[in-house]
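dude i think i finally got it to work??
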Amino acid sequence: MSAPGARAAFARAFGRPPAVIASAPGRVNLIGEHTDYNGGDVLPMALQARTYVAMDRSRDMMSSAFSNSHQPQGIFAMDRPERGNAWWDYVAGPLWMLSSLGIELPNVDVAVVSNVPTGAGLSSSAALEMATLVAVAALCRATPGLPALARAAHRAEGELVGVPCGIMDQFASALARQGHALHLACDTERVEHVPFGGSILVFDTAVMHYLRTSPYATRRMECQQALRAIAKRFPDVHHLARASMDQLKEARLPSPLHERAQHVIEETIRVENAVVALRSTGKVPGSLLYASHRSLRTLYDCSTPEFDWFVEEAAGRDGVTGARLTGAGWGGCAIATGAPETLREFAKDAAAAYQKRFAREARWWITLASPGAGVDWAHPSLT
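look at this
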């Protein structure tokens, strides 16, 4: 998919060329799972796969959205969108939230093309949200800045779409840089771009990943309960990820709250250690990735047999340096690190063995850290 593909899709849907085309990437999280909504650190990077949004002012009294991969076409009111459990919620919601920043938005026609896999835990929703907001900002000649757009997209996903996610996905899709991982402190929104030129194998287990129907909301509730219990004893702890292991032990939380909190606290430390290693060696130690996966499996209870099989296969393969599930768990993708050719050969073998073991056809990609959201083309009248 590309900007010309988005232009062609818009012309097919609306019978005229668009005024602006913007795009945003999916993301893969190197390490830092379930820490974002607990005020901790994360280390994502943008994928090469992107979502493109072509847009123009609507000639009707309503907004319309067309997608090459979703049906039906969406029709919505810009000033009063309603949750419809439809794909265009990820278009209507962010536009509605952006208007809350005081930006007057017109009704728009939107065409979407994307090669970011859906249901794989690679933030296809954030890519659509950010591409939409970057496009409409350009259309209206508004300059709120990418962090403000990311916040609007995050609010929309929670308030209109109904997924209580953290800020990682939207910030990664918005702010990522080519050849860098994004070190994001989710409590302060402090961002550091850490050079990362390594290759990542993304292995899609073909177990669909939907946060709306997974235990994700339950985990968030458990973490909130754990924080309240710790904060009663230690009032200065405002985010679960910023508690210490000593404070957790003194709080004497019941199971499973203790296990959930232990994962969050230790995972944040693993992110910090990964960033230190990246700065000095350019690589994320495989031991941190394997430790993250063990914690997600045993403490956070969000792994699957498919994930565990993949990580075990990676650990037994010469040249593969690390592996873990990514994207919250309960389905979707895992990652592995190593040299590109090693990862390619491992992926081929793993996909064949995976199909025999689970009777599912896995997809896989080798990707590099890629740029975040931006305008790909705009009519000269907008520049």
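The first helix runs from residue 3 to 14.
im so relieved honestly
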